[in-house]
Specification:
288 residues; two-stranded antiparallel sheet; 10 helices; 10 strands; globular; binds thiamine diphosphate; binds iron/sulfur cluster
């Protein structure tokens, strides 16, 4: 049986020392081993951004896609091979700016993909511009006088879009984050896990200390019920979205794969194409 070490490869991450994304990588590797996966049973698909590099740092199938498009690719992978566990990942710019349309529709489609967003409330790779998660007043190179746009409340947005699994964590809390990723993988449907993953180089406001002071752990909230959507929404609104833990889960709703008519029992990727080798090679050469 694989351990988290089997999900390591020889590529050295080039994230800045202290970047929150290191812990997210470790949590994915631990969660994959804890749920009993082998590396060839997992695909990690990512978009573009510092966080997007994560697909290259995990020993599994990996696809480093284009900016904001991890979810269309991840959904295609899942539809082609339903036996693979598919994780999509990227930054808050990737998923909540350019890729927001895909995020909303993947949520309401409830396709069985675990989406892990490394939310540092800034664009890291392009050297520090505001993201849709930046707070009002946040000063960056693109907003030298402070942002005048309000931050997107992504957890509330996910609830209203019909999400069946909504969770949030903090990258230093490896135990909680690993458990949430395990729960997301085991959830039969789309799971959104937003991870506060500080950018130590460009975001000097939302630092590790800032999160420690501001985050509320739902496990500390007496009798919090993650199966009650009204409670989930109220708790988010009362705490400015700054909560960690399993916020909401609906285990009743069927996933896309369970509902789609004629979806094959065996993975499409293993189906016989019923074409000759010459026809196959002709098709492949069209795309080369
Ligand atoms: C279509 C397209 N538009 C813009 C860019 C430039 N770009 C690259 S990464 C990025 C945003 C990075 O921020 P985020 O997604 O939050 O990831 P982080 O680097 O913070 O992990 C942008 C705007 C791009 N690569 N492709
Ligand atoms: S710039 Fe920020 S997000 Fe990018 S690797 Fe460095 S600390 Fe991480």
């Amino acid at each position: 049986m694989a351990t988290f070490k089997d999900f390591r490869n020889s590529v050295k991450p080039n994230w800045c020392p202290g970047c929150g994304d290191f812990s997210v990588q470790a949590a994915i590797q631990r969660a994959a081993a804890n749920v009993g996966l082998e590396p060839d049973q997992l695909a990690v698909v990512s978009g573009i951004g510092c966080s997007g590099r994560i697909s290259g740092y995990i020993n599994a199938y990996g696809f480093h896609g284009i900016h904001g498009r991890s979810l269309p690719i991840a959904q295609g992978v899942k539809m082609a091979n339903k036996d693979l566990t598919v994780i999509a990942s990227g930054g808050d710019g990737d998923g909540f700016a350019i890729g927001l349309g895909h995020t909303i529709h993947a949520i309401r489609r409830n396709i069985d993909v675990t989406y892990i967003v490394m939310d540092n409330q800034i664009y890291g790779l392009t050297k520090g511009q505001t993201s849709p998660r930046s707070d009002v007043g946040f000063k960056t190179k693109s907003t030298p006088q402070g942002s005048i746009e309000s931050a997107l409340n992504v957890m509330e947005m996910a609830l209203t879009a019909g999400a069946t699994f909504v969770a949030q964590s903090f990258s230093t809390d490896l135990k909680e984050l690993t458990a949430l990723i395990e729960a997301g993988i085991n959830h039969k449907g789309f799971s959104l896990i937003n991870v506060f993953s500080p950018c130590v180089t460009y975001n000097k406001v939302n630092t590790y200390d800032w999160f420690k002071e501001n985050l509320v752990k739902l496990s500390d909230v007496e009798s919090y019920d993650p199966h009650n959507k009204m409670t989930a929404m109220k708790t988010l609104m009362e705490n400015r979205g700054l909560v960690t833990g399993l916020i909401y889960q609906n285990t009743e709703q069927k996933s896309y794969q369970e509902l789609i008519t004629g979806y094959s029992e065996s993975p499409l990727s293993e189906s016989d194409l019923n074409i000759s080798e010459d026809q196959f090679n002709g098709l492949v050469s069209e795309f080369m």
